[in-house]
Amino acid sequence: MAHFKNTYKPARFLFLDVRVGVVIFATLLHIRFWTIGLDLVVVALALYVERIGLGFMGSLRAVRAWFTGSYRPALRLQKIRRKVDYERRSLAWEKPVNREPVVVDEVKKDGTNLLKGKL
What we know:
Elements: E1 12-13, E2 16-17, H1 18-29, H2 33-51, H3 56-68, E3 112-113, E4 117-118
Antiparallel strand pairs: 1-2, 3-4
């Protein structure tokens, strides 16, 4: 019986990942020169990927990252919020908002106001 620590190990077919074994099994069902050539290419690619330290799923993620590039937004394009005009209209029972510009008096360096004298 297998130890519980060995349950996470990937399944193997001879010395390869099981997913490569599926391709070899398909070749046994359809023996042609091009399928044997496809087998050799897949086995060589699987050996290279395992040699550099990736598993099958990790290599698929690496290929996907290579195709998509380094920028991956957190949201899909349809879910990204656009700019919205939130200009609020006052309701009939609310007081009107004072929209007059605010007048600011100029203050001199010595602390005196031009209009009112000393502060």
